[in-house]
Amino acid sequence: MRIVVCADAHLDSVHPTFKSSTVKTKLRQEEQRLAFSKAINEVKRIDAHILLLPGDLFNEGSVSQDTIAFLINSFKSIPDTFVVISPGNNDPASYGSAYLTTEWPENVYIFRRGLEALELSYDDFGEKVRVYGAAFQGHSCRNSLLRQNNTLPILDKNFINILVMHGNVLSEGEKNDCNPIFVKDLDTCGFDFCAFGHVHKFSDIVVTDNTVYAYPGVCEGRSFSETGSCGILSGTVTKDSVDLGFVKTSVREYCVVNIDITGLDSYDTVLDRIHSCCTNSEYIYKITLVGKKKYDLKLSIARLNEELSTEYFYAKVYAAYSEDINIELLKYENSLKGCFVRCMLKKAETSQDPELIYQAMAYGLQSFDGEVLFDDNP
Amino acid sequence: MTIHELKIYGFGKHCNLEISFYDGTNIILGRNESGKSTVASFIRALLYGMPENNTSRERKKFRPGNRDVKYGGEMTFEHMGVLYKVTSEFGESKINDVTILYNVTANEKISLGEGMTVGETVLKITADTYDMVSYAAQLSSKPNTDNAEADYLFDRLMKNTVDSKNSATDILACKRLKAAKNFVSSSQAENGILDLLQKKKEKTEAAILKVDSVIQEAEQKRNECSKMQQALNEEKDKHISIQSDMNEVAKAVEIVSLHADVKKYVKEINLLDDELADAAKRTKRIRTPVNIIFGVLISIIAICVLVLIFTPQINKLSFMANLCKYLNIWSQNQYIYMLFGAGAILLILFKIIFSTIYNRKVRLLRDELFTIEEALSELLKIEYIYSAKKHSTNRENINIALDNHKSEYKRARMVLENEDNKTKTYNEHLAVVENYTEKIAYTKASADALTKSVSEMEDSYFLKEELSEINTQIELFERRYEALSLAEEIMEEAYQRWQSETGPEFSKDAADILEKMTNGRYKEMKISRNFDISLKNDAGAMQRAYNYSGATVDQMYLALRLALVKSLSSKDERLPVILDDPFVQYDSERKQLAYRAVDEFSKENNIQIILTACLKEPFYNGASIIEL
User: Fold this and answer.
1) What ipTM score was computed for the predicted complex, to two decimals?
2) Residues of B in contact with A138 (CB under 8 A)
């Protein structure tokens, strides 16, 4: 059976970084839809039997009518594919939800309450399929949706049993208030494949004792905790095997980059180093400068940010470096400076935090040369 | 350190210039713009290099005009018993600069560490320290108040003279650290970065709480809506039975109100029936005899006709002969025939008239009856065919319908007896339905409004991310604050230590040098916080610097600088002092006194002095003089 899994699209939810620019906000919203369209294209490409959407397709509070119309049209464009949706904590099937008040196409099935099974049969491969799912009714769910009246479902092994659900897969003893799904329970049930949403990072295909599950992650990154390529899962599921691959759908990637500026002696060399590490001007970068900055290197983070803002779609620089001070000469000086360095070094001998001593020393020496300034005043 | 020789290939005005220096005082003589200061700059450039790149003023300033001349030179100097030679050639930028350091004593090249200069490698002092100690580029009346290196020395001097407590609080370095601390966190104004970050954190936390609470509230309202909808659906299910009850009541009311009309119609029909029956009776009373007579007449006439037709045959019959006899009798009496005829005609007329009248009346009665029956049939919702021929069928149908109606009426009466309860139940149900419908609409509107307000707020997920970032920033700046506090604390400690080790000597040296320079005139001086110097005048009163000449003030600062040099350079190996035209404001007497003080200072402390001057003075004898 050919399936595509697309989770956590979070359509119309844009990071506040871009809220200062209406143009960028609109662009990012369009890019989210484009990423989702890529998922639909993948469905068409492999002629998938089922498209599984394990929740957070949109954010209930901010989804627009245009986006709902876009989704309806997308689903209509794949009439031979069954679209199965398990609403998540951001798009719960609560009273007034778009899931309940909108007329969805016939090939769409949306779980609306507790665990239930949708039975499908396909002539082309002669198998019967049961897709299990459940809906969030609100923004949290302390009890596992996998259990109905504290009972796990008993699966008919004559079917290909698939679970599509939004929640957190946990080990025994762990707690969570967003639909805790225990691995032990999954193994007890023995689903052939479980498609999960809620965790925004691709989990790889996880094989446990008696089941296989995966989180595809978001299909388009929205923040720096969703870095790198984002996408969907596509492939086949049978009674005996799960053969799914990751397919990239993200239009723009979030990147967190640490750049060591040790040894660099000018603003221009620092900028060059940034350019060499951040090679794609269309990406969204969080750049942290680390290492030891040369003592006489005057570096303005504000100036860097201003310059990079014209070169990249988005780039923000943070300072996490320490000052590189040559104390070998200073500690012999017969001056207050030399005395200060000697006192600091003496303190460092017994300190649990030598980095702090070093930083204090840098500030003290800076105070001799001029105002003690920080390169990165927020 | 003692400088022995300079060889300038090309540096500023100088090209292929060689200068030798000696211990003690060395004087470089030259007119204005002859390049005296350039020599000092050359020495510094060989020890500490040129600034970064070709765009810097200094690199450009000293580049020889003739590009064929090498930009650089050599210097031979002795330090800590070792003779060194440094050769430098300067390029377009620091990367192109070439500096070679040679240990002449050991006959070996010394490699400079990456980024290290000759001064740092050999003298083990930074360029900043060299600038403060050795190189007085410009002697001004007032030290650079931004120079924190000198600031603490003057602070010491000030504290000595004003008998204040010895604390580092007032020195520039500490003030700057304090300012940086206030920038990070100001407990009074609460506008430091940390304070702002804390406020931002509180605001973000509050926003998260608000978003979460609004979401929760919206959710609660939707749950309420859901429950109320369920209850409403149950009420609507009940509605079906209640509605049927009410329908029954409505129907009963209809039947009861119908009954009156039915009754009325039935009464009218009965009356009409009675009338018709009466009419029929009356008619029968008259008609029957008339019909009998008419019948007899018709019979007689018929017989007579037959007799006439069949006379031959009849004549054979005896009774017929008798009858004919009678008939002959009748035919002979014509009046009997006329009377008989008239009677017949009258009878016929009477019948006709009577029939007409009777028929008309009956017709009218019947029409009326039919009309009422039709109306009744309409009420009873049965078919009625307006025709006399179908009257009995109609009447049968009406009777059946009436029977049904009677049963329905009975039932309706019973229903209406319970009517009040049913109406009350129905009204109560309606009230409940309306109540739920209203509440659902209101609650849903509230939930929608809350959801809308959530959509206008920041996404909770991103707020939490922002909070995490703020916390990271707070940690960063808290650490910085901690580091600044530590720096301030250690600065105080270092100051105390320096004061006890070096301070008193420095103050004494400055005062001694000044006394010598002024030939004992000024022994006591005080310095205020902004470096305003006061001297005790001849009358014994302390007078501010502006009361004195520029030369006098210069003497004070020269004394301080020389004391500074002695204080900061190591006892084991003093650094040279380069003074650029230090006596420019002095008159001859002062110049001599100052020169002698400087020369004496040099000899007493084994410090090489290189000073520049425009004019040769007689008291320069004994010094090494280099004329440019």
Assistant:
1) 0.84
2) 219, 222-223
